[in-house]
UniProtKB/TrEMBL annotation:
Belongs to the Dps family. Pfam families: Ferritin. Transmembrane segments: none annotated. Coiled coil: none annotated. SUPFAM superfamilies: Ferritin-like (SSF47240). It comes from Pseudosulfitobacter koreensis. It comes from the Bacteria. This is DNA starvation/stationary phase protection protein Dps. The lineage of its organism: Bacteria, Pseudomonadati, Pseudomonadota, Alphaproteobacteria, Rhodobacterales. Residues 18-160 form the Ferritin/DPS domain. The gene is dps.
Length: 162
């Protein structure tokens, strides 16, 4: 571990949080890429609304991912956003390169976003149980924000009115 700025935590608590945060970092980067893939390729009756929404969602996710990486460093770890780190720690399946229609993109993004929210909840519980309340609080904010954005995206599904 590098220099830490959390002397009030045990080494075990720090290590547990760093490990989970690096998984969240890698998975968050995968989600960032999925959102951009959809942004560039989406087609359908709500194209412009979703296209612009995805820019906003991506910007908010960028803030969450940055906060996750910074927390790793504050805890004395190394934020691993390298390709190797993403491949090793990321939990999302590859985004379908042939997706075009907005409903396909919405389903694919919503599924990935909800997985990321589940990962945040696991981190919240793990960090809280280890006594790292600040990391638990970080995960609460991530979960709240990404859940809301999943709702924003999911509401654009053409079957949402039925």
């Amino acid at each position: 571990m590098t220099e830490k700025f959390t002397d009030y935590l045990t080494d075990n608590a720090r290590e547990a949080s760093i490990n989970h945060l690096n998984t969240s970092l890698a998975t968050g980067i995968q989600l960032q890429l999925a959102i951009k893939q959809a942004h560039w390729n989406i087609k359908g009756p709500s194209f412009i609304g979703i296209h612009e929404l995805l820019d906003d969602v991506r910007a908010r996710l960028d803030d969450h991912v940055d906060t996750i990486a910074e927390r790793i460093v504050i805890l004395g770890g190394t934020a691993d956003g390298t390709e190797a780190g993403i491949e090793k720690n990321g939990q999302l399946e590859a985004y379908p390169r042939d997706a075009v229609h907005q409903d396909v993109h919405i389903e694919e993004l919503k599924k990935r976003m909800m997985h990321f929210v589940k990962l945040a909840h696991e981190g919240l519980t793990e960090a809280g149980d280890a006594g790292d309340e600040e990391t638990a609080d970080l995960y609460t904010a991530v979960s709240r924000g990404v859940s809301k954005d999943a709702w924003f995206i999911g509401a654009h599904h053409t079957n949402a009115k039925k």
